Structures are given as C-alpha cells and as structure tokens.
Amino acid sequence: MSGLYPAGNPWFRLGRLEVGTVMLVVISVVASWVLWVAAPGSAEALYFSPDLVAGGGIWRLVTWPWVNPLSLWAVLDVFFLWYFGRDLEAQLGRSRTAWLLLGIWGALTVASAIIWLIMGGGMGLAGIGLVQMLVLLLWIAENPTRRFFFNIPAWVIGAVILGLQILTWVAARAFDGLLALLLGLVLVALVAKRVGLLSQYAWIPGRAAAPRAPKRRTARASKEVRVAVRNHERAASDRDQLDALLDQINERGLDSLTPAQRREMMRLRDRLRGS
C-alpha cells in the first residue's frame, strides 16, 4: 500500500499509488494546472456563469471545477482537499465519496442557477477551491472537537472559515452570490446526510445512508487463513505424536524406540522448531 493513501479499495493503482476517488480528483486538478500553463486562455472558456450558460455555454456546468490557475493558494487547496478528503473517503468508501463530490458540484451549480433565476444575478464558479472548502467544513462537522493548530477546536476553525467567506460577499455587496453560497451549503448538507455523513445532526432533514458494510474477505485472504489453520492443526498433531514418543521414553527408556520411531521423533522435532 502506498503511504499516500489510506488502506482501502482503490479504483486502480499507479505503481504503488492507490487511486481512490479523492486522489483521482487531485490528479485531475493537477492536469488542469498543466492545461492552464499550456493554454492560459482556457479559463475564460471553462468557468461557470449563469448568464454564459443561458447564452449557450452548457459545457460550463461541468467544466468549472477544472479552472485552476497555478498558484500557491491552488496548491494549498489541493493539499487540503487530499488531506481531509481522504479521511472522509476512509469513512465512506470510494463510491459514496464519489457521490458526495458530485453532490457538492451539483449543489453549488444548482444554487447559483436558482438565485440567478430569482434575482437576475448569481455566483460565478471556477476552480476546486470552493469544493475544497466544503469538504473541509464537512470534515469539521464530523470531527468538531478535534484539535488544530495551537490546540484550537476544529469547530472554531470552521466558523472562522465560513465567517470570512460570508464577510467577503457582504463587503463586496454581492448579496446574490451570498444567497447562492448559503443555499449551496444547505444542499450540500442534504447530500452529505444522504451519503452517510452528519448523522449526529438530527435537525438536518433526510435519512442517513446505512453504515458501510465490512469488506468481504478476499480470496487471497481466505486462502491465507486456511493455510494458517492447516499449519496450526498440523503443528498440534506433531506435538501429540512427539509427546507420545517422549512418554514411551520416560516409561521404557530410549532403547525401547525402534529405528523408525527415532527417525520420526527427529523429524517431528525439526518440523516443530521451524514452525
């Protein structure tokens, strides 16, 4: 197993690197950096805006998470997505994590479109940053008392992150974008509850998914267990035979053993030493 990913059931492997859902997204974002370097103008053609979609740019509904100009903040976004996302994936499994990330994408897109229909303005979407923020907030919601830097509880960090994001929209007087963000948060909470997160928050509507079933034992693991059991049983049988020969020696002396019994005793001793 690669040290870069938790043990689990990846979609595939690249050498020793296990590629699950979060790692697959990280790889795709890194590929988007390459695209931006090769064609800086590609961002203009890929980001999401309700006005542009209404004008015929339907592809923008799908392409906006891959508008990622390379920068220090972009690298930090990917790191935090990987760091906290893999923890959620270890809890949910690869399939539910895929549905969660698709749900975050859909929730943000739908929220922006709804506010645009109501108010005539909305929230433009570009890049993985907002998705990463929501993954981090979901992780914090699952682990509110975990400690961050300087022993600060996770829920305090989450409140600061969300508060700063809201204040940014308020300072820009972009209230349509703020409403789209808040609606997106509500929709993401519903999605998260559906895939198995936020189960401790009973006030969030929706029925949480059942806990992930334990993984079935693989054929290889089953074979290893059978071999271990067989070896244990053989060792127990060898000990019984050796004990019988030693009892005979104690009762009647070493000379009572036949040459065949002596050879058998040596064979049993050597096999038990090597087991």
Mind explaining what this structure looks like?
The protein is mainly alpha-helical. Helix content is 66%, strand content 2%. The protein has a two-stranded antiparallel ribbon with strand order 1-2. A hairpin with a 2-residue loop joins strand 1 and strand 2. It is elongated, with a radius of gyration of 30 Å. The N terminus is likely disordered.
Report mean pLDDT, rounded to a whole number.
84
Rg over CA atoms: 30 Å
Report the end-to-end length measured between terminal Cα atoms.
Answer: 28 Å
Give the ordered list of helices and strands. EEHHHHHHHHHHH
Biggest pleated sheet:
2 strands, antiparallel
Poorly predicted regions are 1-7
Could you tell me the number of beta strands?
Answer: 2
Number of helices: 11
Which percent range fits the helix content?
55-70%
What's the overall geometry?
elongated
Structural class: mainly alpha
How much of the sequence lies in strands comes to: under 5%
The side-by-side strand order for the widest beta sheet comes to 1-2
For the structure shown, list the relevant keywords.
275 residues, mainly alpha, 11 helices, 2 strands
Please give a quick description of this structure:
With 275 residues, the protein is an all-alpha fold. Helices cover 66% and strands 2% of the residues. It has 11 helices and 2 strands; from the N terminus they run ββααααααααααα.
